[in-house]
Amino acid sequence: MHRPDHRAAAELRQPPLDLPFARTVHDRAAHRRAEPGLVDGLRRASSSRVLRVWRDRVEVTSSSTPGSSGRLVLAPAGQVGDDGTWLFLGTHDDAALLAVVLADDASADEAPDRAWTGLRELATLDDLEHGLAVEAVALAQWHRTHAHCPRCGAATTVENAGWTRRCTVESVDLYPRTDPAVIMAVVDDADRILLGHAAHWPEGRFSTLAGFVEPGEGLEQALRREVAEETGVVVGAAPEDVVYRGSQAWPFPGSLMVGFRARAVGTAIQVDDDEISAARWFTRAELLDAVEAGDVGLPGRQSIARALIEEWYGGRLPGQW
Fold it and tell me: Which of 26, 107, 243, 291 has the fewest beta carbons closer than 10 A?
């Protein structure tokens, strides 16, 4: 007789993870992107605010406080120079929100009270700032790699307030793409978590397993395949053995990380020695001891990996990359 898995049912009722890059309070106002002259008009509006992006970094105020990244610089449009690719991010409180993406080789010298900061280091932003930063960087990364048409190689032009590019030869519209990837806290029946060490990471760095979804593959299929390929561990085949926990953009350069809790039906580890060079099962006490001793480094607090680990642990753990 089949007995219901009450633990799995309880997990299914849990609210999704609270993830920094999944927070947003502004309106993307996608219906306005095709308005003729939208960006030019908004750049002349005194209420418009502009975020500058350079490479994969955003402009923030400098901070001397340990653990603080400063705040996002949203300057009046009239105070921002013309050079760069202009993007319409949306609106908030009756103000238009724009980004200007500087060329990679542009001079990006900062005033003493400003700094260029990557998304992983943005520790002190509010929900509006987080949402704008991740949107702007993700869109900027796409523009960096689509200056030419992938079909014929011709130059492309920016259209629709930065949300499409158009091939100048074939008149084909190109749209931003996001690559789905699964990331999973794999837990066994003893309630231990499986963490892996990527071959290219510094010694002692461990995180949850993750991998890209292949063509023609579902998320759950990708999860089971990646865990088996990287560590030899088998995830259960029942629907309740893979539970969705949340998702967030990860624009390095253009991923969507889809997070799961997964149940392992075997604990034997055989790493692939290609992507993963080591993997270990940890109890909560073992992981805490290893982190406090400096033997294990955990993912940064902006990542969904950290959220998955700390959800399993039941609270915050010390340290981060």
Answer: 107
